[in-house]
């Protein structure tokens, strides 16, 4: 029972990953796993799989081995669930025996002394498929070099599209988003120029974050565009990882700095706030390393699941860490509002930080839930919608942050009269109202 559950979990984790198929080179060395998922790909009715396997070596060279139980196949998520049931019910003893999969080839097809095999498989049934290697022989270790190429053809059969059917429009999406962010950069520069007398250092930091996000989207657009046309990123993936790293660090740092009220509330950071930054920044480094490993090795790597778990753990820790400075600022503002005689101004600041706390929570957690749900339930043809949803949420967060913390003469806010001051003082007496 446990091995079947492990196989199901491994396969499912691949299906819920964000990796995009392209021309992939995979080195398998002395691997005894029963199931090794490679890439997933959304085929149209004009799909092709080109599989080239070389340097095949088995730990047991016995010629009497049943090599029909070692090989490659294509399988959809729904089909895999039924294959698991067949294995559990004893209808079959190996996934390659199921009539629900699409066999590519088994090692039984290898001729004597042959250590490699190539095959082109037309795929005319449109769906999301995963290329899987199965080894149903106990304790047999396999070594091989695998080159997998999956693509769709246009109706004329001439132009190849190496992006999955559900993500083929991503280059245009990223180009459009980069233009939107470029417009935001222009707007923010204009705001900083118009309000230059009340601009703080945090506002220039905001500008840097938006610029990095713009460049990151442009690099991602070029990355996906080259993969779509050629199957290779041609170096754009390196630039994408670099700017993703910088964008991730600066964004989390910005949230921490805003949460502490640095620059526009106070020109310094307390020791505990510095410690948060010292935690978040190294964790972002680890997260980006994990993301590179996840994207570049693919799920065939033996440590792929481990790196996936590391990335998720680090992501959760970072998201939790950035909330503490906001909570501290809310606590300090609540205490100051009752002691410094500026109840109305502090009430406005307190309300602003409470709003920001709620927005950060929604952006960090609810956005991830929505994106995960879309990846899970959306048809393979519309997997791009999860990317769009995540990017639109990020755009909304950037706009909200810029609008709420824009430079103002009486930052954060405006002049109040005596009546408003008295009303605010009364409101602050209701302590429970301001509890998180």
UniProtKB/TrEMBL annotation:
How does this protein lie in the membrane? Multi-pass membrane protein
Domain CAND6/7 N-terminal: residue ranges: 28-152
Superkingdom in the source lineage: Eukaryota
Q: Which InterPro entries match?
A: CAND6-7_N, GOST_TM, GPR107/GPR108-like
What does UniProt give as the signal peptide span?
A: 1-21
- Gene Ontology CC entries for this record: Golgi apparatus; membrane
* Residue intervals of the GOST seven transmembrane domain: 171-411
Q: Where exactly are the transmembrane stretches of this chain?
A: 173-193, 200-218, 238-264, 276-294, 306-328, 356-374, 380-400
Major place of localization? Answer: membrane
Keyword Membrane assigned to the entry: answer is yes
Give the keywords, sorted. Membrane, Signal, Transmembrane, Transmembrane helix
Do you know which Pfam families this protein is assigned to? CAND6-7_N, GOST_TM
Q: Where in the cell is it found?
A: Membrane
Name of the molecule in the record: Lung seven transmembrane receptor family protein
